[in-house]
Amino acid sequence: MRQAGFSQIEVLTAVGIMALLSAIAVPSVRQSWERQRAAVMKERLAAVRAAVQTYYRDTGCFPTALEDLANPGALPYCFRLESGTVNYGATPRRSNGPYVYEPILAPYGNQGNLVDWNWIYDTESTSASGFGKISAPATGNDPDGVSYASY
Could you give the CA distance from residue 110 to residue 103 in angstroms, rounded to a whole number? Predict the structure, then answer.
């Protein structure tokens, strides 16, 4: 009398087919996930830059730190560009903020660091071209081969 069930060959064939399908699908899913994270990085970086520009239009100067975007009452001083140089300690005009309601975190980098929002915010540069630049904290390249530093 024959017993019900699968033979060893049938089971090994099924496992082999599943392994082959997994080997094909996993890299595709991973690349899709990395593209999504890169798109989120660009989107959030654009939101932070827009908030800084709105802050600048309202107050006439750049925030001393990105946390100032969420805290409009804390405007002791700021950075202002005057004749191509940076004036540290300038007195801001009245703020109409908050410009964001919670920290906008990058999907790469130190996720737990809310102090600097994990974006690279240049307040050290003395030239107008580099001052106030916000860039991504991630190193390396996105799935398209573009450097995160160039975002």
Answer: 13
Whether residue 139 contacts residue 106, with contact meaning beta carbons closer than 8 Å, is answered with no
Q: CA-CA distance, 138 to 128, in Å (whole number)?
A: 24
Residue with tokens 């106030």: 132
Query: Quick check: helix, strand or coil at residue 9?
Result: helix
Q: Tell me if 69 sits within 8 A of 98, measured CB to CB.
A: yes
Number of H helices, E strands in the chain: 1, 4
Cα–Cα distance measured from residue 60 to residue 130, given in angstroms and rounded to the nearest whole number: 18
**Given the structure tokens 């737990």, which residue do they identify?**
112
Three-state DSSP at 130 gives coil
* Phi/psi of residue 89, nearest 5 degrees: 85, 20
pTM: 0.68
In sign, the C-alpha dihedral spanning 115, 120, 121, 127 is: positive
Read off the pLDDT of residues 105-151 as tens digits, 9 standing for 90 and up: 777 654 443 334 577 787 776 555 666 788 887 777 888 888 887 88
In this predicted structure, the answer to whether residue 12 has a pLDDT above a threshold of 70 is yes
Q: Would you state the structure tokens that stand for residue 88, as one six-digit string? A: 């540290």
